[in-house]
Every structure is written in C-alpha cells, then in structure tokens.
C-alpha cells in the first residue's frame, strides 16, 4: 500500500527523536515518499544524524531541555512527529521532567501556529504501566493545545529481539530469549516500519486522524511461537524462558511489579484486525523476519 502524500509539499515535517528507533524509521519513511524532513538532533556530528542527512533530511540542532532552541527548528514546519523524551533517574522514571519536555515541544509547536502533531507514546493496559505516567500527561496536554493531534501507542518492537539482554531480559543470548511474558499466551508486537507507516497515514490525512489515539500492534504470537519462528527464519535454534518471580525481583522491583500486573491480566489490547483495515500492509512477525529481521538477528547472533 502506498500512502498518498503530496509529491512536492512546500513545508517539511519536523521529526524529533530522529536518531532513535521510531523517529529514525519515520524520517526514512517520509523521505522515501518524497516529503521534506527536518530532523531535530542534539549532536549534528553523530553518525545517526549524518546518515539522516545523507538520506536527504535537513538537520537542525535542538534540545527539549532548552526550550529556546525549539522555535528556530519549527520555523516553516508543516507538522511535527514527536517522541516523548524519556527521563529515568536512579529512582526510576522522572515523570515531571518527561512531561515538561513534552510540553515544551507542544508549546513551541502551538506558538509557531502548527496545527498537526503526531505523538508516539506507549501502549496502554487496563492498569497503569511502568513509565507511562509522563506520557499520559503529555497526551493530555497535546489534546488541549494542538488543533489536529494524533497519538500512536505502539506495543513491544520486533527489533527488541536484537537487544543485548544486558539485565537478563529481552534480546537473545546463547540461543535463549528471556522475558516476563507467560510462554504460551499471546504477546503483541509491532514492526518499527509500521509505526512509521501509521505516522505517514496521519500526515497524509490530518482530518481523518485528528483526535484519534491508536493502540498499535501487528502480530500476537506466544513467546514460544515467536522463538520458533525466529529459529526457523534464521536457522539458529532459539528457545524461550520466562523469568521466575524471584529472578524478576532480583533484577528490579519495577520489573517484578510489571510481571505481576501482566499475570493479573493487565495486557496490551491493540485491535490488530481493525488496524489492518487502516493499513493493509501491517507486518506479522513472519513478514518482518522475511523482510529484514532474520538477517539482522542472524548477524547479531553470529557476530564475534
């Protein structure tokens, strides 16, 4: 499916978090479709920033902690793709700082007369999830200050299988993927490329997506099924192990609490079939593995 974006729009879309996962995927998608992209970065010389410039993005230096740097970045911009700038301290998420950063971007966009802002936050559950408080405050502020707001709430990324598992969770290490999820119950996941696609759809039709909050997922295999699919696609045997309560508590009290909430039934709830009506090309795990994921995971697992 090709999103109908004007071939030669006059004004760029500002993409924040452009050197990160979601921002980078969105910037590349918009560039591929012929839309001018202005990428907000803190370091113009960073390799990821240089790669965006080589792809055709205009780089602009800015920092959410320096609100005065934002108005120049927004000058002449048609719309904004925002990522909440996460703030995590020794005691956990710094909700007030994260919310202040998001509000700084929204205030600057409103002052510049920008009507459309698409913000990507985090998938919701029936109970507050770890790290969601600041994002919820940003969403509420967005809806109160921007004429055409859209919120995307993606679940766990398929690229998380490429993680290093530094704290004993996520990623694949020595043929084992370890996480909190029950091994034989569905677990929603999404490809970064599809987050970018939904952002592009919103920019292509602002009125259709204004005021909407979309919970995003593309597939829901069980962890055991996902491990088997990765093993088949890569040719490397992979198995899944669920962390015990004791292991989760030893890693981090917050991780243990998330595990308890998940076991109590507080799960992600994206309506995948409804999303596929909006975006027929929505990727399953098998699709993503065939497209790029298997090669990336294989390279990761076989690297010295």
Task: Give the arrangement of secondary structure elements.
Layout: E1 13-15, H1 21-32, E2 37-41, H2 47-55, E3 58-61, H3 70-74, E4 79-82, E5 88-89, E6 92-93, H4 95-111, E7 116-120, H5 133-145, E8 148-154, E9 156-157, E10 172-173, E11 176-179, E12 189-190, H6 192-204, H7 206-209, E13 212-216, H8 223-234, E14 239-242, H9 245-251, H10 253-263, H11 272-278, H12 285-302
Parallel strand pairs: 1-2, 1-4, 2-3, 4-7, 7-8, 8-13, 9-12, 11-14
Antiparallel strand pairs: 5-6, 10-11
Helix pairs in contact: 1-6, 4-5, 8-12, 9-10
Describe this structure in words.
There is one protein chain. The protein has 304 residues and is of the alpha/beta class. Helices cover 42% and strands 17% of the residues. Helix 9 packs antiparallel against helix 10. A 7-stranded parallel β-sheet has the order 3-2-1-4-7-8-13, with helices on both faces. The chain has 12 helices and 14 strands. 41% of the residues are buried.
């Amino acid at each position: 499916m090709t999103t109908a974006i004007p071939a030669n729009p006059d004004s760029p879309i500002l993409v924040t978090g452009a050197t990160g996962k979601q921002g980078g995927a969105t910037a590349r998608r918009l560039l591929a479709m012929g839309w001018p992209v202005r990428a907000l970065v803190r370091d113009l010389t960073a390799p990821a920033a240089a790669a965006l410039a080589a792809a055709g993005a205009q780089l602009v230096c800015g920092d959410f902690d320096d609100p005065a740097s934002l108005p120049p970045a927004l000058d002449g911009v048609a719309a904004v793709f925002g990522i909440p700038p996460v703030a995590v301290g020794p005691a956990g998420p710094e909700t007030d700082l994260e919310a202040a950063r998001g509000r700084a971007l929204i205030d600057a966009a409103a002052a510049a007369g920008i009507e459309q802002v698409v913000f990507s936050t985090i998938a919701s559950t029936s109970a507050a999830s770890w790290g969601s408080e600041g994002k919820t405050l940003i969403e509420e502020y967005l809806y109160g200050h921007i004429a055409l707001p859209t919120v995307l709430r993606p679940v766990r990324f398929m690229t998380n299988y490429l993680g290093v598992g530094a704290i004993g969770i996520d990623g694949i290490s020595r043929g084992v993927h370890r996480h909190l999820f029950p091994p034989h119950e569905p677990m929603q996941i999404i490809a970064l490329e599809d987050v970018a696609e939904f952002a592009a759809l919103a920019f292509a039709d602002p009125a259709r997506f204004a005021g909407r909050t979309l919970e995003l997922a593309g597939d829901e295999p069980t962890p055991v099924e996902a491990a088997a699919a990765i093993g088949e696609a890569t040719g490397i045997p992979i198995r899944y192990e669920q962390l015990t309560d004791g292991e989760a508590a030893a890693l981090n009290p917050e991780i243990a609490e998330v595990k308890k909430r998940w076991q109590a039934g507080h799960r992600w709830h994206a309506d995948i079939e409804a999303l596929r009506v909006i975006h027929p090309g929505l990727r399953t795990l098998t699709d993503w593995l065939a497209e790029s994921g298997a090669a990336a995971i294989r390279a990761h697992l076989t690297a010295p």
